[in-house]
Amino acid sequence: MKLENNWLQKSLERLEKKDAGTPCSDYSNLVNNVLRLRKIPLEQFSVEDLRLMIGQKEGLTYLIPRTLDILKDDLFAEGDFYPGDLLQNVLNAPISFWKENKELWEDVHTLIIDRVDEIAENNISVKVFYDNES
Question: Global pTM?
Answer without folding.
Answer: 0.91
